[in-house]
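hi! just following up on the protien thing from before. the input was this:
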Amino acid sequence: MRSTLPGRGALALLLGAALAGCPLPQTLPEYPASGTITPPRIQSDSVTPSDTVILVDAGCPGLDTSHAFRLGATIVDENTYEPVEYRWFVDYDPQRATVRPLFPDRQFIPGTQDGVTIERAVPPLELQPYTFDPPLYGSPTESKPGQNFRDSGGLHVVELVVSNAFASEDPAPVPAHARPWRTPLKNATQSFETQVYRWTFHYVPTGGACSYP
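and the predicted 3d structure came back as:
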Protein backbone atom coordinates (compact mmCIF):
# COMPACT_ATOMS: atom_id res chain seq x y z
CA MET A 1 0.00 0.00 0.00
CA ARG A 2 1.35 3.44 -0.93
CA SER A 3 1.95 5.76 2.04
CA THR A 4 -0.14 8.95 2.21
CA LEU A 5 2.20 10.64 4.69
CA PRO A 6 4.07 13.68 3.35
CA GLY A 7 7.76 13.24 2.65
CA ARG A 8 10.56 15.19 4.31
CA GLY A 9 10.53 17.86 1.63
CA ALA A 10 6.80 18.41 2.01
CA LEU A 11 7.17 18.56 5.78
CA ALA A 12 9.84 21.23 5.45
CA LEU A 13 7.59 23.30 3.20
CA LEU A 14 4.68 22.97 5.61
CA LEU A 15 6.85 23.97 8.56
CA GLY A 16 8.21 26.99 6.67
CA ALA A 17 4.70 28.13 5.81
CA ALA A 18 3.58 27.76 9.40
CA LEU A 19 6.54 29.76 10.70
CA ALA A 20 5.97 32.51 8.13
CA GLY A 21 2.48 33.06 9.50
CA CYS A 22 3.50 32.87 13.14
CA PRO A 23 6.27 35.27 14.26
CA LEU A 24 8.78 33.79 16.67
CA PRO A 25 9.11 35.41 20.11
CA GLN A 26 12.11 37.73 20.41
CA THR A 27 14.65 37.35 23.18
CA LEU A 28 14.67 40.25 25.64
CA PRO A 29 17.92 41.73 26.94
CA GLU A 30 19.06 40.26 30.22
CA TYR A 31 21.12 42.10 32.83
CA PRO A 32 22.84 40.65 35.87
CA ALA A 33 20.82 40.73 39.08
CA SER A 34 23.43 42.99 40.66
CA GLY A 35 26.52 44.92 39.71
CA THR A 36 27.57 47.54 37.16
CA ILE A 37 26.24 47.41 33.60
CA THR A 38 28.78 48.98 31.25
CA PRO A 39 27.44 50.84 28.22
CA PRO A 40 28.17 49.94 24.59
CA ARG A 41 31.43 51.36 23.28
CA ILE A 42 31.60 54.29 20.88
CA GLN A 43 34.22 53.36 18.31
CA SER A 44 36.53 56.36 18.11
CA ASP A 45 37.89 55.33 14.71
CA SER A 46 34.36 55.29 13.28
CA VAL A 47 33.43 58.81 14.36
CA THR A 48 32.82 61.46 11.70
CA PRO A 49 34.18 64.05 11.49
CA SER A 50 37.26 62.29 12.81
CA ASP A 51 38.73 65.47 14.32
CA THR A 52 37.58 66.32 17.83
CA VAL A 53 38.09 70.03 17.09
CA ILE A 54 36.35 71.28 13.94
CA LEU A 55 37.34 74.70 12.63
CA VAL A 56 34.35 76.63 11.31
CA ASP A 57 34.64 79.61 9.00
CA ALA A 58 33.31 82.63 10.88
CA GLY A 59 32.18 84.18 7.61
CA CYS A 60 30.24 81.27 6.10
CA PRO A 61 27.49 82.45 3.76
CA GLY A 62 23.94 81.26 4.12
CA LEU A 63 24.01 81.02 7.90
CA ASP A 64 21.34 78.86 9.56
CA THR A 65 20.05 77.31 6.35
CA SER A 66 22.58 76.28 3.72
CA HIS A 67 25.36 74.54 5.60
CA ALA A 68 25.48 71.65 8.04
CA PHE A 69 28.00 69.30 9.60
CA ARG A 70 26.98 65.64 9.62
CA LEU A 71 28.06 63.94 12.85
CA GLY A 72 28.05 60.18 13.06
CA ALA A 73 29.45 57.26 15.03
CA THR A 74 29.27 53.49 15.42
CA ILE A 75 28.73 51.66 18.68
CA VAL A 76 29.81 48.13 19.61
CA ASP A 77 27.56 46.06 21.86
CA GLU A 78 28.02 42.33 22.39
CA ASN A 79 24.40 42.06 23.55
CA THR A 80 22.72 42.12 20.15
CA TYR A 81 19.20 42.10 21.57
CA GLU A 82 19.24 45.15 23.82
CA PRO A 83 18.22 48.61 22.61
CA VAL A 84 20.65 51.45 23.25
CA GLU A 85 19.48 54.97 24.02
CA TYR A 86 21.46 57.89 22.63
CA ARG A 87 21.20 61.60 23.38
CA TRP A 88 22.71 64.63 21.64
CA PHE A 89 23.63 67.75 23.60
CA VAL A 90 24.96 71.15 22.48
CA ASP A 91 26.82 73.34 24.99
CA TYR A 92 25.61 71.23 27.91
CA ASP A 93 25.80 73.10 31.20
CA PRO A 94 24.15 71.55 34.27
CA GLN A 95 23.94 75.02 35.86
CA ARG A 96 21.55 76.22 33.17
CA ALA A 97 17.88 75.41 32.86
CA THR A 98 18.22 74.52 29.16
CA VAL A 99 20.11 71.26 29.45
CA ARG A 100 17.68 68.93 27.73
CA PRO A 101 18.76 66.79 24.78
CA LEU A 102 18.32 68.18 21.30
CA PHE A 103 15.46 65.78 20.59
CA PRO A 104 12.47 65.89 22.97
CA ASP A 105 11.53 62.28 22.25
CA ARG A 106 13.74 59.45 23.47
CA GLN A 107 16.01 58.10 20.75
CA PHE A 108 16.89 54.39 20.55
CA ILE A 109 19.11 52.22 18.38
CA PRO A 110 17.39 48.81 18.15
CA GLY A 111 19.32 45.59 18.64
CA THR A 112 20.53 43.68 15.61
CA GLN A 113 19.01 40.46 17.08
CA ASP A 114 20.99 38.15 14.80
CA GLY A 115 23.43 37.08 17.50
CA VAL A 116 26.36 37.98 15.23
CA THR A 117 26.43 41.67 14.34
CA ILE A 118 27.76 43.68 17.26
CA GLU A 119 28.19 47.02 15.47
CA ARG A 120 25.37 49.52 15.07
CA ALA A 121 25.36 52.95 13.47
CA VAL A 122 24.08 55.93 15.41
CA PRO A 123 21.62 57.88 13.24
CA PRO A 124 23.65 60.91 12.06
CA LEU A 125 23.03 64.42 13.34
CA GLU A 126 22.84 67.25 10.81
CA LEU A 127 24.28 70.07 12.91
CA GLN A 128 24.05 73.74 11.98
CA PRO A 129 26.27 75.37 14.61
CA TYR A 130 25.17 78.85 13.59
CA THR A 131 21.69 78.23 15.01
CA PHE A 132 23.22 78.01 18.50
CA ASP A 133 25.16 81.30 18.34
CA PRO A 134 24.11 83.89 20.93
CA PRO A 135 22.25 86.64 19.02
CA LEU A 136 23.59 90.19 19.29
CA TYR A 137 26.59 88.91 21.24
CA GLY A 138 28.46 91.91 22.69
CA SER A 139 26.83 94.51 20.49
CA PRO A 140 23.26 95.58 19.65
CA THR A 141 24.34 96.75 16.19
CA GLU A 142 25.59 93.56 14.56
CA SER A 143 25.12 93.23 10.82
CA LYS A 144 24.27 89.55 11.34
CA PRO A 145 22.93 88.06 14.59
CA GLY A 146 25.76 86.26 16.38
CA GLN A 147 28.50 87.62 14.10
CA ASN A 148 30.48 89.07 16.99
CA PHE A 149 30.39 85.67 18.67
CA ARG A 150 31.83 84.08 15.52
CA ASP A 151 34.41 86.82 14.93
CA SER A 152 35.65 86.51 18.51
CA GLY A 153 36.38 82.79 18.13
CA GLY A 154 33.25 81.40 19.77
CA LEU A 155 32.95 77.70 20.63
CA HIS A 156 30.20 75.09 20.63
CA VAL A 157 30.63 71.68 22.29
CA VAL A 158 28.52 68.84 20.88
CA GLU A 159 28.23 65.59 22.84
CA LEU A 160 26.90 62.15 21.99
CA VAL A 161 25.91 60.22 25.14
CA VAL A 162 24.86 56.55 25.06
CA SER A 163 23.56 54.25 27.78
CA ASN A 164 21.35 51.22 28.31
CA ALA A 165 19.37 53.08 30.97
CA PHE A 166 19.18 56.77 31.89
CA ALA A 167 17.77 57.95 35.18
CA SER A 168 14.27 59.39 35.01
CA GLU A 169 13.89 63.15 35.13
CA ASP A 170 10.24 63.04 36.14
CA PRO A 171 8.55 65.04 37.43
CA ALA A 172 9.64 67.60 34.87
CA PRO A 173 10.67 70.36 34.59
CA VAL A 174 12.66 70.28 37.85
CA PRO A 175 15.91 68.32 37.25
CA ALA A 176 16.25 65.47 39.71
CA HIS A 177 19.99 64.91 39.29
CA ALA A 178 23.24 66.86 39.47
CA ARG A 179 23.77 66.18 35.75
CA PRO A 180 20.19 66.24 34.48
CA TRP A 181 19.19 64.24 31.41
CA ARG A 182 22.48 62.35 31.26
CA THR A 183 22.74 60.66 34.65
CA PRO A 184 22.65 56.84 34.29
CA LEU A 185 20.09 54.78 36.18
CA LYS A 186 21.22 53.49 39.58
CA ASN A 187 19.16 51.49 42.06
CA ALA A 188 19.67 49.11 44.97
CA THR A 189 20.92 46.26 42.77
CA GLN A 190 22.10 47.71 39.44
CA SER A 191 24.28 50.60 38.37
CA PHE A 192 24.27 51.59 34.70
CA GLU A 193 26.93 53.75 33.05
CA THR A 194 27.19 56.17 30.14
CA GLN A 195 29.77 56.78 27.46
CA VAL A 196 30.41 60.17 25.88
CA TYR A 197 32.05 61.48 22.71
CA ARG A 198 32.65 65.20 22.18
CA TRP A 199 33.26 67.48 19.22
CA THR A 200 34.30 71.13 19.66
CA PHE A 201 33.29 73.59 16.93
CA HIS A 202 35.63 76.59 16.92
CA TYR A 203 35.00 79.68 14.78
CA VAL A 204 38.11 80.97 13.00
CA PRO A 205 38.62 83.89 10.55
CA THR A 206 40.40 81.73 7.95
CA GLY A 207 41.04 78.06 7.30
CA GLY A 208 37.69 76.84 8.57
CA ALA A 209 34.92 74.88 6.86
CA CYS A 210 31.25 75.67 6.33
CA SER A 211 29.98 72.07 6.23
CA TYR A 212 30.91 68.39 6.49
CA PRO A 213 31.25 66.33 4.43
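The domain at 29-204 is CATH 2.60.40 (Immunoglobulin-like).
The radius of gyration is 24 Å.
cheers
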